[in-house]
Structure formats: C-alpha cells, structure tokens
Amino acid sequence: MLAHELCWDGDTGMIPVYDRMGKRIVAAVKVWYETDDERRVNIYFPDRVEKYAEAEQTLSAGEVVPWVSNGQPIGVPVVPFVNRAKARLSYGISEIASMIPSQDALNRTMVSMVMTAELSAFQIKVAVGFAPPAKVVPGMIIKIAEEGLGNDQKVDMFTLEQAQLVPFISQAQFLIEQIGTITQTPLPSQMGGDSASGESLKQREIGLLGKVRRFQVKAGNAWEDVMKMAATVQNAYSPTARAPQVKRWVCRWEDADIRNDAEVITNAIKMRELVGDKEVLRLVAPVWGYTAQQIDAIMAEKRLAQADQLAALAGNLPGFDNFTAPVQ
Predict the structure, then answer these.
(1) Based on the domain organization, do 237 and 268 belong to the same domain?
(2) Any residues with CB less than 8 A from the CB of 264 and at least 6 apart, and which?
(3) Do 80 and 91 meet the contact criterion of CB atoms below 8 Å apart?
(4) How far is CA 116 from CA 109, 124, 127, 163, in A?
(5) pTM of the model
(6) Which domain holds residue 279?
(7) Is residue 255 very low, low, confident or very high in pLDDT (cuts 50, 70, 90)?
(8) Burial class (CB in 10 A: 0-12, 13-18, 19+), 77
C-alpha cells in the first residue's frame, strides 16, 4: 500500500535522515498519534522497522520488524520527490521561494490600500484653537468663542487630506506582474480570449511548461523507485499475490503542452476520412475524458445503430422481409 506522509511539523510527520553527503536516505522517522494521549514512532532502516510508543512523555521500545527480501535489505521505504535539487544536496527548493519577497511587498501594499480606503470614508478632522463638540454631523452649527476672539487667537477646522488609491492599485498590479514573471506563471489577463490558438497559448506559457517538464523528469524517476520498491515489498510479504515480472519501471507522462479543445476536435474531424471513427475518438479522448473501454462501447453502440437502420431499410424492399444485418 502506498501512502503520502506530510513532513515533520514539530509534533507529527516524517523526518528523513540523510547521510553526511546529503545524498542518500539512511533512515526515516514517522511520528503520529494513535489516540489523543498516545503518540507512536516508527524508525525505518534499510533492513528493519523499529516501533515505539510514547506514554506520559516516556518513549518505550516495542517490536522490531525485519525488512528484507530473500535475505537482502529492501531499503528505507521512503522515496523523496525532489524539486529543483541543489548540486550537492538531494533535497530541493520550493517553486515559490524566489517570489516570497514580492508576495510580502504585495501584502503590505494591500494592507496600506485598505487603510487608505477606510481613512477616505472616515476622514480625520482637526480643530485649532477651540474644543469642538464630541460629535460633528453634517448641517450642524459649531459655536466658536461666543464671547469673542483675542487679538492673537486663531481658530480653524479642517480635515486631513487622504492619500489616493490609484498609486496603490498601480503598485499592486506591478507586483502581481512581477510575481508572474518570477514564477514563470502567466496571468489570466495575458492569456488572451477563448479564441486564442493553441500555438499562441504555448508561447505565453513556455516558461511554465518548462517547469512542468523539468519536474516530470525528477518526479518520474521517483515514481519508478516507488513502484520498484512496492513490487519488492509485495513479493516479500504477500502470501498469495505477486507483483508482475518487470525488468525496468518506466514512468511516462501525458504531454504537458497547452491544448485548445476546439482546435483538437476540429483537427480530429478533418482526419476522419483517413483514420476512421475509432481513431477520431482516440484523438478527442483527452478533451472528453474517454477511456479505451468507453471508446469501444461507443463504437459498438454505433455499429448496432447502423445495423438497425440497414435492417429497417431492407425490410421495406421486396424479397427482404427476413433480412438480418450482421453486426461486427
């Protein structure tokens, strides 16, 4: 059974232990809660699994399970999916690491824009030389120095000028565009309308497609290791079912190119006379999500309908009362 485990978060999760070169996993630790009060710990070595249980903040040893196949260690049952690996280390770098500073600047800009909007709706009033009423409402009369003003006394009342929202909006748009450039992820506003051709979409997303293809290579290698280990474990511990005999596991991905569904359907229909209906269904299968079984069912239903139409036509002709159309 394959399982996806989250990384260590300070309380639970997986902790891979690498060798000093940072290239190979020599052990892995899994920490989880069996109940609210009982935390469990498994340590996976290449040849064994050590199980521990924690009760009242004390870790007690449990059983040790062999992890071998035909007397040979199976290996640590943890396969890392590495993204943008460094030269000397096996672990990778997040795709969003380079854009976090820009995202922080965008967050600050958005907060400033919200505060500016609030101050525009609730402006700050200033009174100079007198104490204004606690509440000032439109249309009211404010009395200032009923007994007169002194020669040097000055009074005034005004509102502080608020900042404009347009500069903040422009700055936010600029930062969003920079984030798209840094991450090589095109913005929806840059993708064109629904009528944009598939080639046009490819040009706009060439950077994103490059990231996808690069990760497919690394992730494909990881999936091959996963299936190889799963087959080894299946053969070592399953009492009945055995894994298929495979010389080499190869991961093959669907094409990462941008697809224009309307263009795919149009081109498939143009090829109908040359390749036939079944091949047309195969060409449009990615658009509609057809499986091979669904394609066969559609073709069988179409052949049956054609046979019924032919039988109905033949029944109207003299001498063809008992005609039965063959269904292939």
Answers:
(1) no
(2) 198, 283, 284, 286, 287
(3) yes
(4) 10, 12, 22, 6
(5) 0.58
(6) 261-315
(7) confident
(8) buried
Question: Are 178 and 198 found together in one domain?
Answer: no
Rounded CA gap, 155 and 201, in Å? 65
Place of tokens 């260590």: 8
The count of C-alpha atoms lying within 13 angstroms of the C-alpha of 320, restricted to the half-sphere facing its C-beta, is 12
Distances (CA, A) of 79 to 5, 12, 95, 126, 181: 11, 18, 20, 66, 32
Residue given tokens 């976090």 in the structure block? 100
Of 258, 273, 307, which residue sits at a domain end? 258
Count how many residues are written for the chain. Answer: 328
Closest C-alpha among 17, 65, 12, 76 to residue 39: 12
289 and 278 within one domain: yes
CA angle 46, 52, 54 (to 5 degrees): 150
pLDDT 10s digits, 112-126: 988 888 877 777 788
